Amino acid sequence: MTATQAQSAQAIATFVSNFHHDLTRWFSGADEGEATWNALVNACPDNMTLIYPSGAQLSGRAFLEELASSKRNNGDFVASATEIRVLHAEKDLGVVAYQELQQGAEASQRSNLRSALALVRRGEQGWHWDYIQETGMKS
Q1: Where exactly are the structural domains of the chain?
Q2: pTM, whole model, 2 decimals?
Q3: 3-137 in CATH: which number?
C-alpha cells in the first residue's frame, strides 16, 4: 500500500465513523443541527444510491428528505459503525465494508444490526457516499 493509499484508507475509515456520529447527533438533537445537517448533506450527494436491507432504494436527496422529516430529540438513538475495513483506497475513491448498529430508533426495531458495503469518493467538500448496499444481520 502506498502512502497515498494509506492516508486515504485512514480518511475513509474516519469518514464512516464520523457519518454515524453525525446521524446520532442529528436524531438525538444533541446540537442546534446546522453544522450536523451540513455534514450530512455533504456526505450524501443527490446522485448517491442507498439500498436498505428491505430492498428499498433511495437517492441521496430522498435519504436527506427522509432524515429531515424524521422526529428529532430522540436521546436514546445511537448509530455506530464497527468492523470498518477499507477494502480498496485510492486518492479519490474507496471501497469500505462495515457493520452498522442502530439502537433506540423509534421507527424501526429497537436494535438494528446491518452489514454494509460502500463506494465512497472524495469531492470538493471531502469524502462522500456514492453507493451503499446494506444487508440485515441478526443482533
Answers
A1: 3-137
A2: 0.91
A3: 3.10.450.50
